[in-house]
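Would you mind giving me a polypeptide sequence along with per-residue structure tokens?
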Amino acid sequence: MNCIGGVLKDMDSGMLRRLVEVLDGMEAELRPLADTFLQDYTVGTRLHGLGLLKPEQATLAGAVGPLLRASGVAYDARLLGYAAYNDLDLEPVTAREGDAYARCQVRIEEIYQSFRLIRQAVDKIPEGPLAVPVKGNPDGEYFMRIEQPRGEAVYYVKGSGSRFIDRFRLRTPTTSNIPPMLDMLKGCQLADVPLLILTIDPCISCTER
């Protein structure tokens, strides 16, 4: 769908309205499921107080994304205002507890936040083409920080005008969230390890590159 210069195919106003209708249906189905999960006795007993990560620990260890925000640190790379985010109302979703339950809360609330951001964007998209034709090959270098679902990703690319780039580097959120997991695992039981690993939502293929 995404490509250099915008999107592969433009969406007209009818498609955008249909998109919002689909989101409304998804949210209506998700809310009772999410509420049932978060209010479940077993979930609460299992996750409350598990894998505590204090704000200073999260910051010093380089945590990003929901892992960082669940420890009370209101940092979100989208606040840098890249792409359309300067035109959207965005407040980082945070929790103060810093445990496994807080990380689940933050992730679920960020789904609802995504719905709100999409609705805002649909209301503000101007008429006209969304795809911008791009010609030529990259010549120069560029550094970019963006917010992905798992947290901040860092991209670096360098080109010299040829069809092949000279250098490309990527730091994924999972790479950043493994060091703080060492603090989360201290003192836990063996049966807690899989749960705590899942609360950082690791992308192992990103980490094994």
The chain has a mean pLDDT of 93. Helices lie at 13-39, 41-47, 55-61, 65-69, 100-124, 173-185, 193-198, 204-207. The first strand starts at residue 2 and ends at 3.
